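Supplementary notes for students who missed Thursday's class. We covered one full example, reproduced here. Read the sequence, then the structure, then the short commentary at the end.
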Amino acid sequence: MVLAYNLLWIFGIFLAFPWVTLSIITSRKRRKTVLQRLGIAVTPELLDLKTSDSGLRPLWVHALSVGEVLSAVSLARALKQKYPGRPVVFSASTLTGFETASRLFQNDLDAVFYFPYDLIFSIRSVINRIHPALVVIVETDIWLNFLSEMKRRLIPVILVNARLSDHSYSGYRRFSRLTSPIFQCFSFVCAQSGEDARRFMGLGLPAGKVTIAGNLKYDSPPDLSSENTIRSLRRILSGITHQQCLVAGSTHPGEEAILLKAFSRLRTQIPALCLILAPRDIDRANEIRNLAVSDGLTAELLTLMEGSPALDPPNVVVVNTIGHLKTLYALSDVAFVGGSLTDFGGHNPLEPAAFAKPILLGPHTGDVAESCNRLLASGGARVVHDTTELVQAALTLLKSPERSRTMGENAFQILQENQGALEKTLNAIGRFIQA
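Structure (token representation):
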């Protein structure tokens, strides 16, 4: 199977070579990542990486993009604290994931780098440089060559915070003859829920290689949004944050138009209301700003507000920076979590819950179903399906501070009640780390 997979890689690269070349030239993201992901360029930290004085090999933690990186923060730091004699390195696949990890781990871990493309020469180059004792993959990003190479070298690979949606599970089951050997490469799986654990076992993993550890996002460390960062953002947004504020985070194409329409209707009853929009892809920030202006609103990019406070603050602030969303939720009166009004599977609703904020969600939350269902059942979140429902729900919360406070407290309680995944995950990983 590995041979067929690599032949397909070669054939695909040959066919797509002109498009790939053009994409690298025209895309800032690909230009900045391609050489490292090919294993050709190396970050300075990896160049200097050595085993510890005692000869202990590094622990490697990998996360796909921003959401998975944030899930992995507490785990990566805990591994460094629990095994101080070992180097701990961290990889991400996307530019935004890498930049987020670099900012969060600059003083904690031994190296942050891009995960290699699943090409034999790329992964072997990176593996040979790191020579890891163990690899921890957070949530997803499963690649056949990488896993097969780790299995060949007898390096344990553990999948943590693991989940399988209905759609993913059905797809893997449909092609089980091909996918089952891939999952067999994992040494152990820490599933988020009992249903996730059953699905992994349904893909051929024996019960002894799967445990229910819970969701690491409930154990997200509080220092991701320090008081200093909150004060800094309050200063930048000083013209608007004394007003009521709706923060919409991790939005996708199609959602901003709905949010802007709802916001315009809300302002007819709450003229001092402001909207902070944080798109999932910050490269869309100018597009969203222009969309707001075309709707008759005043709008500005967050980075352009970092100087003196505006004499005439905008109605809409569009976030074009990485890593500020969780802190911005702290400034909200009502939080909307995107990727859910349009069918993108939803994003992490626990970030606003950490600040005891009332949460609004669209109906499409399959990727974060477990946490959303808990929040909805507790009364800490509410589903809205369209502009009208969004206006009604936000208006109710903005005009009733007591109801808003109760809803936020319910959300925060869910966060507290479900902590403990970090300890269970560390215990599972520890079984594969030799002293």
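Commentary. The mean pLDDT is 89. Residues 223-417 form a domain with the Rossmann fold fold (CATH 3.40.50.2000). If anything here is unclear, bring it to office hours.
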